[in-house]
Amino acid sequence: MVADRAGPGRRSCIVCSLFFGGRLSAGESIMQLHPIDWIIVVVSVTICFLPALLFARRAGSSTVEYFTSGRAAPWWLIGLSMVATTFSTDTPNLVTNLVRENGVANNWQWWAFLLTGVTTVFFYARLWRRSGVMTDLEFYELRYSGRPARFVRGFRAIYLGLFFNCVIMASVNLAACKIANIMLGLSMTKALVICGLINVFFAATSGLWGVLVIDMIQFGIALSGSFAAAWFALQQPQVGGLAGLASRLDPKTLALLPDFGNWELTLSILIIPLAVQWWSAWYPGSEPGGGSYVAQRMLAARSERDALGGTLLFNVAHYALRPWPWIIVALSSMLVYPTLDHIREAFPHVDPRMIGHDMAYPAMLRFLPVGFMGLMVAGLLAAYVSTIITHLNWGTSYIVHDCYQRFIRPGRSPRHYVMVGRLVTGLLMVAASLLTYKLETARASFALLIQIGAGTGLIYLLRWFWWRINAWSEIAAMASSFIVSAALFIADQNQVKIPGHVGLLLTVGISTAAWLTVTFLTPPVDRAVLERFYDQIRPAGPGWAAVRDAAGLPASSDSVSDALIGCLLGCGLVYGALFGTGSLLYGRATIGLVWAVVFLCSAAGLVWLLPRIWKSSPAREPSQVRAR
User: Fold this and answer.
1) What region does 301 belong to: left with phi over 0, alpha with psi -120 to 50, or beta?
2) What is the full DSSP assignment across 405-433?
3) What is the DSSP string of 11-33?
């Protein structure tokens, strides 16, 4: 790293800047933090330490407390925790990368996942809470039977909890390292060591209760910093405020929809995400049917209402509240740093291997004045820590509860599993840190995760509502998706270039055909398991009619039509707020008012609908469900 190779004089200058707010020589471009900035950072970190200490004893009492907060979390807390977890250091970098490459419309690659989100809210949140499991992997032995069910649970515990989870954390680490390098002159190694110690302390000490409260505090800090960054980006003379931004950039860059004259681009960033990607690809935080840390929060909710309300709050904040400050900074960066060479010239100390379009976001933070720079550093640190500690707790829950406790050392005391969980937390952080050296950009990490999870999403939607799906179906989906993804990777390494959207369609088509074939060629789940699952979960629709009628069980009180209406209203609410805000920022008042009407009508519809959902599906605890 550049900082590691620096001479003693330069190194001492960097240390002075980091810890005492000292100035660097005129030839350096490392951003300066003054004493007031460091006071803000230290106070923010100290405030976040308090929940970790306060909840340490409670978290150590049992794995239920450590991994699911005793199933007592209110809706607003789990909602804020979800949105804080997805508010990471790599997210503004990713958005900046997308905007600089193909304009604002390029964000449809993740805006399309709102369809996944609202489906989870209205179809799956209550079902997850009804299940009463501790992790979403425990679901496999609730829904399926025999050795295949045990295999899927154990395999996914290691695959997701260790390998997949470490890829996610490594991509977050990479963004944090780029920010630390461009703002503070820290090498990747130094940044990983410092951040790793903070994360392990928070996650290992506090359990999920502490993580939820820390997330809430850190979300407020991070959101404040992102708004400050957008404000000061607009004040730069190259930008000229919102009016200058709208007039100096190509209208195609500002457009909320891609250029339909470029059909290949439109297909890859709009049509495929809306038509295929949202239901077919498994991506953390946007899993079809819910999963990972989203399912963990729903399982930690104190009732079905809290699970649904918290997940709805998450989707509104995730898609409607947060994007525009990032987009504003990204658009401003295109005027301040039109090319990557401009970033290299402005930051000669930065490791050349780390330069990419995603680095334009931290590069814009150099314009923050004293005080606001400290707020931004505190906000970025908060965003980073809230994401990593969630992934550490989530990954540890898989490895300890679904692998170690289930298959290796069953029957030990709760405190034993908590102790093992704390040890695993530290080891996961080490593994993710080592993997960080192998990643290049946030955009590459996003594409990698989408490709790995492609083709499996549909089965995660249907397994709740169709009795015929079995554990072999999921094994076939995972295996075929991995084989196709591996083949595409090998082709790419041999200079056979296959467009990303074509690769996605191939993976989805082959995987879906494979798991459907296997489903009908293998025997169904044991009848007793199916009846017990239906009696506890009560999924609506015709997919369980055969099991329900044979067992003499009553129909579900849930309404499929109400859930579908909720999905439509949820999309109207969020997209109305998202595009209405963007139109008003661009100075397009008429279009903005139209979107505002869509938002208000959707909000009124949800106010009417939610009481119907509560009435048709009253909350009930899993312990009250009659076992069969």
Assistant:
1) beta
2) IIIISTT--HHHHHHHHHHHHHHHHHHHH
3) HHHHHHHHHH-PPPPTT--PPP-
3-class SS string, 616-628: HCCCCCHHHCCCC
pTM: predicted TM-score of the whole model, two decimal places = 0.86
Distance CA 118, CA 25 (A): 52
Q: What is the mean pLDDT of residues 102-114?
A: 94
In the numeric block, which tokens belong to residue 225?
Answer: 């910093």
- Which of 129-143, 280-294, 415-429, 590-604 is least confident? 280-294
Task: Kindly report the backbone phi and psi dihedral angles of residue 281, in degrees, each rounded to the nearest multiple of 5, phi listed first.
Answer: -105, 135
Backbone angles phi, psi at 411, to 5 degrees: 85, 5
The first and second tokens of residue 273, run together, are: 């995400």
Cα-Cα-Cα-Cα dihedral sign, residues 451, 453, 459, 465? negative
Residue 351 has pLDDT above 90, yes or no: no
Polymer length in residues for the chain: 628
Note the pLDDT tens digit of each residue in 470-528.
999 999 998 998 888 878 878 877 888 888 778 888 888 999 999 999 999 999 999 99
Q: First vs last Cα of the chain: how many Å apart?
A: 61
Of 531, 530, 514, give the one whose Cα is nearest residue 522: 514
Instruction: Report how far residue 460's alpha carbon sits from residue 286's, in angstroms, rounded to the nearest whole number.
Output: 12
> Percentage helix, strand, coil, to 5, in the chain?
75, 0, 20
For residue 365, the 8-state DSSP code is: G
Task: Report the distance separating Cα 501 and Cα 485, nearest Å.
Answer: 13
Answer for the pair 174, 445: CB distance below 8 angstroms, yes or no. Answer: yes
Tokens 């953390």 -> residue: 284
Q: How far is CA 368 from CA 266, 342, 371, in A?
A: 36, 19, 8
Cα–Cα distance, 352 to 365 (Å, whole number): 19
Tell me the two tokens of residue 255: 């457009």
Contact 375, 224 (CB under 8 A): yes
User: Rounded CA gap, 533 and 110, in Å?
Assistant: 33
CA separation for the pair 286, 273 (Å, rounded): 12
In this structure, what are the phi and psi dihedrals at residue 577, rounded to the nearest 5 degrees? -70, -40
